[in-house]
């Protein structure tokens, strides 16, 4: 011990020479080191999935070819590994473990999305708590009414086609890009379901519902601080963004149109002589007591509900209907078969010339169209998608033993799912629109092999409306017009990518 004496005395003397501030800093520094080293020891003891740091594997670079990179990375490191994606270390989950993530309530897709793109917060909806019943409202009231809503959806699609394409008999009409075209059709037909047949004639409201989601997306200019400091990001999205003129304008427009209607419906709630409107606005009002504590004026609360429905449905349905139409344009031979099926079913069902040609039952018989849509979904689930966040403050241990720490993000390697021959059948690389015709795998039927709508308790409750609307938009267009590509059709080859090409519409 004696041999340490000079060292200890020297150290004590040095410490005594330090100012009080320096001593405090020293103590804090040592304490931090102890905490940090104990954290590092603990986390290094955790069985985290292997961290892949190579940005290029077998000559494939992650930024140039994410899909190819995912493929070689999973061959080399197994189906679960960690990687730095867009500056953040996340865990990539392959087909073997994706199901358990969906089914585990400790993971949340909506919270993971909201961390980066808090659409409700950006629209000034402070808490999502009061709208958590949306899935059950959709399942209980919307999906069972689709048979009834089909008439108005068809009507609105046709009115919009009259307006956007017109007769196009002698003079064909060229639509330069199908996305805005489909968006205005879907916005109008969805408004007829959400707010009723009268309100869907209101251009201001329909335009607001059509553009609000994209306006939020295009106005969110993230900078380095927001990407690296989640609290600054959240503050910006929830406090500053909702005050932007575009957002205030959308709110004002919706409020001006919807407030008098909501007030009138509330006044008539207990009036037996009132002709009860049949739409989601009425359902939402009837499910929320006007005298209840909603934390904001009742009309604002109900208007928020309308926007919640719009945010989850209009853009998603439009995007997928647009992609499907472009696939139909790219493959005229398949388009021909879809048209033949349509003609055959209409003849069998005898609805030609009736007020509603494409009834729910007719649409159900379009098995080729259904398979085509599901195949387009499959072609679109091809990268890292459906991120989920561990929303608890404890580790989640996956069945393969890998640990997902609190707040950590996992991404589904959807390429692994959509290109697996065991899950998808022969030649999964090939676009085969009739892949599901002979199977019971409808476009709405979720499963380990079909996760575009999620899985489990939180699987998309609006998928029945979404696929039904897609079929009605496509069927009405094909029924009324002969379509020819104006130029080459380019399909999207990434998840975020857009197809391109003008389409010439000529009346049949
Ligand atoms: C093709 C169009 C659509 C796609 C691809 C889609 C996809 C999804 C996905 C992936 C989820 C998350 C599932 C999960 O957390 O596991 C979801 C949730 C949801 N979707 Fe859709 N959706 C579409 C259309 C719609 C429509 C039309 C509605 C409403 C009418 C809707 C309402 C909802 C709601 C309310 C949730 C939240 C479910 C929950 O948290 O429990 N979606 N959707």
UniProtKB/TrEMBL annotation:
Domain of life: Eukaryota
Keyword Oxidoreductase among record annotations: yes
Any one GO molecular function term: iron ion binding
Residues binding heme, per UniProt: 460
InterPro entries to which the protein is assigned, alphabetical: Cyt_P450, Cyt_P450_CS, Cyt_P450_E_grp-I, Cyt_P450_sf
Entry keyword Lipid biosynthesis: no
The protein's required cofactors: heme
Pfam short name (any one): p450
Keywords of the record: Heme, Iron, Metal-binding, Monooxygenase, Oxidoreductase
PANTHER family (UniProt xref): CYTOCHROME P450 (PTHR46206)
Family: Belongs to the cytochrome P450 family.
Official protein name in the record: Cytochrome P450
Source organism (scientific name): Mortierella isabellina (Filamentous fungus)
């Amino acid at each position: 011990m004696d041999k340490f004496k000079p060292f200890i005395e020297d150290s004590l003397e040095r410490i005594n020479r330090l100012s009080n501030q320096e001593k405090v800093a020293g103590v804090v520094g040592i304490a931090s080191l102890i905490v940090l080293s104990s954290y590092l020891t603990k986390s290094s003891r955790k069985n985290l999935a292997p961290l892949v740091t190579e940005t290029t594997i077998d000559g494939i670079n992650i930024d140039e070819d994410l899909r190819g990179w995912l493929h070689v990375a999973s061959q080399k490191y197994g189906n679960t590994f960690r990687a730095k994606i867009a500056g953040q270390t996340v865990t990539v989950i392959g087909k073997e473990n994706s199901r358990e993530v969906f089914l585990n309530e400790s993971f949340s897709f909506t919270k993971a999305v909201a961390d980066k793109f808090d659409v409700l917060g950006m629209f000034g909806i402070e808490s999502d708590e009061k709208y958590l019943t949306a899935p059950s409202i959709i399942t209980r009231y919307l999906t069972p009414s689709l048979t009834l809503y089909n008439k108005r959806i068809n009507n609105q699609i046709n009115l919009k086609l009259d307006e956007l394409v017109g007769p196009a008999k002698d003079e064909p009409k060229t639509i330069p890009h199908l996305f805005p075209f489909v968006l205005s059709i879907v916005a109008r037909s969805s408004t007829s379901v959400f707010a009723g047949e009268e309100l869907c004639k209101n251009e201001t409201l329909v335009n607001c519902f059509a553009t609000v989601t994209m306006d939020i997306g295009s106005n969110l200019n993230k900078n380095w601080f927001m990407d690296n400091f989640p609290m600054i990001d959240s503050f910006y999205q929830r406090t500053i963004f909702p005050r932007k003129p575009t957002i205030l304008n959308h709110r004002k427009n919706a409020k001006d149109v919807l407030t008098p209607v909501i007030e009138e419906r509330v006044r008539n709630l207990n009036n037996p002589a009132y002709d009860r409107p049949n739409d989601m606005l009425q359902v939402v009002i009837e499910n929320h007591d006007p005298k209840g504590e909603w934390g904001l004026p009742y009309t604002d609360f109900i208007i928020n509900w309308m926007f919640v429905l719009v945010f989850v449905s209009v853009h998603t349905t439009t995007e997928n209907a647009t992609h499907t139409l472009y696939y139909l344009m790219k493959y005229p031979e398949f388009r021909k078969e879809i048209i033949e099926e349509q003609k055959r079913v209409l003849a069998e069902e005898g609805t030609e010339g009736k007020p509603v040609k494409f009834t729910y039952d007719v649409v159900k018989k379009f098995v080729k169209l259904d398979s085509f849509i599901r195949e387009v979904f499959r072609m679109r689930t091809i990268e890292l998608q459906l991120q989920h966040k561990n929303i608890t403050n404890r580790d989640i241990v996956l069945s393969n033993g890998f640990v997902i720490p609190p707040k950590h993000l996992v991404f589904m390697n959807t390429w692994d799912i959509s290109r697996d021959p065991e899950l998808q059948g022969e030649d999964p690389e090939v676009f085969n629109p009739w892949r599901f015709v002979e199977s019971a795998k409808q476009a709405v039927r979720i499963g380990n092999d079909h996760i575009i709508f999620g899985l489990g308790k939180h699987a998309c409750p609006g998928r029945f409306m979404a696929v039904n609307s897609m079929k009605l938009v496509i069927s009405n267009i094909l029924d009324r017009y002969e379509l020819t590509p104006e130029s080459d059709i380019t399909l999207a080859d990434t998840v975020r990518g857009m197809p391109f090409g003008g389409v010439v519409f000529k009346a049949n």
